Amino acid sequence: MRRAITLLSASMIALSASAASAQNAKPRNLILFVPDGLRGGIVTAETAPAMAEIRDKGVNFKNSHSLFPTFTMANSSALSTGHYLGDTGTFSNTIYTGYTSVPAGDTVVPFIENDAVLADVDDHFNGDYLNEETLLKMARGQGFSTAAIGKVGPTLLFDHTDRGKNTIVIDDSTGGKTGVPLSDEMKDALTKAGLPVATPSRGDNAKAGDAKTPGTTVANVNQQAYMADVATKVVLPMFKARNKPFVLVFWSRDPDGSQHNTGDSLNAVTPGINGPTSMAGIKNADNNLAQLRKALGELGLADSTNIIVSSDHGFSTISKESKTSPSAKIAYDDTPKDFLPMGFLAIDLAKALNLPLYDPNDKNAKVADNAHPKAGNGVLGQDPAKPDVVIATNGGSDLIYLPNKDKKLTERIVKALLEQDYVSGLFVDDKLGKFAGTLPMSNLNLKGKAVTPNPSIVVNFRSWSSGCEIPTNCSVQIADTVLRQGQGMHGSFSRGDTFNFTAAIGPDFKSGYVDALPVSNADVGMTAAQLLGLRAPNNGGLIGRVMSEALPNGIVPKMADGTISSKPAANGLRTVLKFQRVLSTRYFDVAGFPGRTLGLEAEGGKQKTAGK
User: Fold this and answer.
1) One-character DSSP codes across 383-413
2) 537: left (phi over 0), alpha (psi -120 to 50) or beta
3) Beta carbons of 136 and 122 less than 8 angstroms apart
């Protein structure tokens, strides 16, 4: 019944949107600009004037949402297909695939922000692991010119099965051994424009530092200047010359890369991601957007091009402090005293379950008592080739897989996690049963038609505000990562991470409109397809909605708020999920243990700034 209501609601909105643009005999052009990791509340006329102008003169989606887990590849799958993660199977940046991926370094937990790894995963899941049609694949099938330019991984995902045969793909790997090949036409055009056929490196922006050495103090200017030049001096003129509609995805690595690697705040949470390096990253992305808009004007394409700006997720400053973690009481060569090491979740679970820990990123070598896994990932069990537990480390949340679907082991893991002060909310695969203190994954649209293995448990980490006028601009989170306290991360269920930036402008959008309704990255994918007149043959039903209220003459549906709470665990902890709803579509605001997640107040009072 619910599926029928969902499809009916989507159909009603789609019909409304069709009516709004029926006068367009020829489809408009579309540019989707993704400023990776841009916080929803950080954009002002000073920090990002180009984005502020689109927001203020076009449509301001002030109630925007990233999908949880709030990671890049997860949300790229939503932006490119309009589906939630339960359908796309892209549950985070690092996932468990159930087989050993050679391009990822002979591991069962590949980091999929890599062109060669994406091809490998596709090969192992019937040629298309997403199991849903992507925006650029549909567009080129209908005669559009298509291109994807930007950060390696999410850029390719928009037409990952084509691998550059028809869609132009320019990312970090272009010109390298693992890069998507360029056509002769593109090579010639780049050469004529005086641009290299290989993408420049990030240079100093790629320096993450270590526990004693600060990370970068510069934005990713040179690499992104190249990509912006490719878009404005080669691709857009080429598309204009073809005299047919086009779709261009530009995925800016900044501010994400500069916030992750920032060297402004080594081992201290302030200024964290609000230091000069992060702010330079925001301005860098904004400059790229301004260059794109300037080129559209000079080419006479501005009036026929819709622009959607949508970041994949928000951002937080990393904390590595815990009073309960056994791993924080161990001395490591590369970790400050009493700080959480990389892979703390795997280490702590191995101790709690009394199971040996092996490193899937080191040929399944056993992890010594005073060491941590190289990439944080872990396999637990007597035989690493047949593990009982697999931990995929990601950042503000981690994924736990139980290949044997052992319900008793699930119960033991839940009990161990409930004892840790860094945990704030647990979500368990519905098939494993109900456990006090946890909520089922289906509540988050994490159960659908995915062909990749479904996580058994998603662990959300604690978050709070360091204290500023807009709390989501200075959120802090515990993060399972090689990066240091004071650098940047995302992935949690805090409003600091779910509150992304979304705005739009163009002939098919209202002008000067503030949209109070909740929207998500899945909605952006659905709306983009609608504007282009595309219809996807959906395999799964976990889809976003067309943002009809932002279109001329579009309907404005009603919204409602909702809360779901688990039964309390023995220690009183319960996972609470706060969401909004438009028709049958849910938008997830925050979740976790009240008082341990930014935006989720403690019972009987507001969460303390220090998160204690």
Assistant:
1) -TTS-SEEEE--SSEEEEE-TT--HHHHHHH
2) beta
3) no
Can you give the pLDDT at residue 6?
43
Give the contacts of 434 (CB within 8 A, at least 6 positions apart). Answer: 428, 440, 567
Tokens 């091009």 belong to 305
What contacts 561, CB < 8 A, 6 or more positions away? 578, 579, 580, 581
Tell me: the pLDDT tens digits for 339-387? Answer: 999 999 999 999 999 999 999 999 999 999 999 999 999 999 999 999 9
Q: What is the pLDDT of residues 72-119, one digit of tens each?
A: 999 999 999 999 999 999 999 999 999 999 999 999 999 999 999 999
Cα–Cα distance for residue pair 388/404, rounded to 1 Å: 7
Question: Which distant-in-sequence residues (6+ apart) come within 8 Å of 268 by Cβ?
Answer: 485, 486
How many C-beta atoms lie closer than 10 Å to residue 556's C-beta?
A: 13
Cα–Cα dist 453/121, whole Å: 12
Cα–Cα nearest to 556, from 9, 21, 13? 13
Neighbours of 473 (CB within 10 A): 19
Which pTM was predicted?
A: 0.95
